[in-house]
Amino acid sequence: MTENNTQHAPVRAAAPTTLTAEEIKAQLTESGIPEHLHPYFPRGLGELIPAMGIKFQELTAERTVATMPVAGNTQPIGLLHGGANVVLAETLGSLSAGVHGGENLVAVGVDINATHVRPAVSGVVTATCTAVKLGRTLCIHSIDIVDERGRTTCTARITNMLIPRPTA
């Protein structure tokens, strides 16, 4: 029992998903990652990006564009969940920074902030990520998310640190 008399099931970490090389290639291709960038993602994209329905149209260190459906990513009253906006923003900023870092470095987020400007209730949102600073250690990106009518729904800014790619 917790302090407010609710019971929670014990938290168990999910077993890591191991994909075959063919499954990784299919996941990257289906998500719109250009083939020349596949070596940057030796373990694929993880589980969250495909689960959220994020699809890339463009992916460079300087500019990344991706879409995400509102359906399946809503909060209880039917609006796009603010956390989904942040997932989309962090995904674009981190992958852009990772491309800047090259195959031997990975980007890890050290700061993110988001301002939700208006709700998205249906259709697809499009995020455009633009580099503010691409350094040897830190990368800063600005992300604007718009609805299908081109209206801003969220603006975000992320700072990533580039670190050596883990070997295991």
UniProtKB/TrEMBL annotation:
**InterPro entries registered for this protein in UniProt:** HotDog_dom_sf, PAAI_dom, Thioestr_dom
Q: Which UniProt keywords apply?
A: Hydrolase
Which SUPFAM superfamilies is this protein grouped with?
Thioesterase/thiol ester dehydrase-isomerase
Gene3D superfamilies per UniProt:
Hotdog Thioesterase
A GO CC term assigned to this protein in UniProt? cytosol
Record's keyword annotation contains Hydrolase? yes
> What family name appears in the similarity comment?
Belongs to the thioesterase PaaI family.
* Name of the protein in question: Thioesterase
Recorded source organism is Rothia mucilaginosa
